[in-house]
Each structure stands twice: as structure tokens, then as C-alpha cells.
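sry for the spam today, last one i promise. C-alpha cells for design, 148 residues
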């Protein structure tokens, strides 16, 4: 995230990570997560190779993948990055809780205001953060100025 949020991000990053981490970065609803949303917001992520644990000696206990991360400014033009980050962090603050509760506490807003805001964005207040797509998060950030 430090690289992606930097004023001058790298043109491209090639990383070898544990297979499960690579899958988390590329996760989509209903298994989305904060890391995946941020990576999708700031970049295009591709798994370009899988590496079996037996290719190493001594063999680790996990398989790996090679990620190609290319920063893109597509979404930053649509929404304020800091506001977006605040909303995503609030939404994922307690992943097992419903969005209504997370946003009410995380954004320090009354539940009535959050209910109206979610309704304008066609999001059910009982949903959980991992069920929202990147487009939902962007829409929430774009309309966050409607909160008191």
C-alpha cells in the first residue's frame, strides 16, 4: 500500500508472495477484503505465474505466485483517495458486522444518516463489507458528502 499510495508510485511491481496472499489480493465479492479493494482501486493486479513449493530447497510449507502490479490512476480521478480510504477502512473495521453498524461507528454518524446514504447507493444495510464490489465503494465515496 505504501508503494501504491506514494506521490510517485513505481511504474510496475513484480512480487512473489504466498499463494493465499496472491488470492486475497485478487479476491472479489462475496470474498472481498480491504487489501483487495485498495489494490483494485490503485492498480491492476495479475497473477502471472504459480510456483510449486517443491521448486525450492528446502521446500517451504506453502506454494507461491508471482504478482504483477501495475499502478493505474483510473479511479483516483473519480473520487478523493483519502475519503475513499476512510470509507473502506470503516466498512471493514469489523468484517463480521453489518455495514450499518460499521459505518455508524467508523464514520461517527447516526444510524438514520447511514441508512439513507446506503439506500441512495442501493446497498442493503445488513450486508457485510466483503460483499461489496469496488464500484460500490467508489459510489459510497462519491456520495459521502451527503452525510451530515
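last one done:
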Amino acid at each position: 500500500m505504501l508503494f501504491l499510495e506514494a506521490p510517485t508510485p513505481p511504474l510496475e511491481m513484480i512480487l512473489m508472495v504466498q499463494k493465499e496472499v496472491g488470492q486475497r489480493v485478487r479476491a472479489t465479492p462475496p470474498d472481498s477484503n480491504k487489501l483487495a479493494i485498495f489494490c483494485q482501486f490503485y492498480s491492476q493486479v495479475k497473477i502471472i505465474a504459480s510456483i510449486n513449493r517443491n521448486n525450492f530447497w528446502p521446500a517451504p510449507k506453502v506454494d507461491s505466485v508471482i504478482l504483477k502490479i501495475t499502478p493505474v490512476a483510473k479511479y483516483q480521478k473519480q473520487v478523493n483517495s483519502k475519503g475513499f480510504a476512510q470509507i473502506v477502512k470503516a466498512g471493514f473495521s469489523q468484517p463480521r458486522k453489518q455495514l450499518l453498524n460499521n459505518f455508524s461507528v467508523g464514520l461517527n454518524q447516526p444510524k438514520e444518516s447511514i441508512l439513507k446514504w446506503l439506500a441512495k447507493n442501493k446497498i442493503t444495510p445488513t450486508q457485510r463489507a466483503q460483499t461489496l464490489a469496488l464500484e460500490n465503494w467508489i459510489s459510497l465515496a462519491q456520495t459521502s458528502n451527503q452525510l451530515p
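Residues 81-91 form the longest helix (11 residues). ok im logging off now
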